[in-house]
Design brief:
about 180 residues; five-stranded mixed beta sheet; 6 helices; globular
Length: about 180
Amino acid sequence: MATQKEDFQKYLLQNDSVDFMFCNKEYHVEFAGADIYPQGFAAAFYRLQDFKGINMLADIGNGTMNIMYINNSRPVEKKCFTEKYGTHQCVLAVRESLLKELGTVVDDLVIEQVIRTGSADIGEKYLTVIRKAASDYTKEIFHKLREREYNPELMRLYVVGGGGCMIQNFGEYDKDRVTIVRDI
């Protein structure tokens, strides 16, 4: 990951400056440097003033969960982690549970709707299996966060990305200490 970061930084800084035209206006931009952070940081950037004390930011995307500490409004570069634990893996786990428990294949669109909203217009036995699998998966997300030293009594958790709906719909957490950022 550090190599990718360095390579990307080199790529961004390959030119000292650029000249371009936008909306019939000429621009000249000189680059002083480039800081590289996980993509979830951009979603939290506008509210950095809220990150007092010790905070953990979890960006749960389709394929990965990016974890970052932000302490007193500053990202902690040495405490950034990526786990292969995104929403797609949840869909796969739900699909496997449905096949194992009910012997049925359910379209991913239905599974995704339940993950996103907590419900769907399907039979109760299917909803029960999907909800249980999604709940189990969400517990594992919190387990992964604890492996990265998440402690809900000592820090606040901010969740961004599509996986925030999983936490909101199926997670067991203190709503006063966990913020699901839906408006990114």
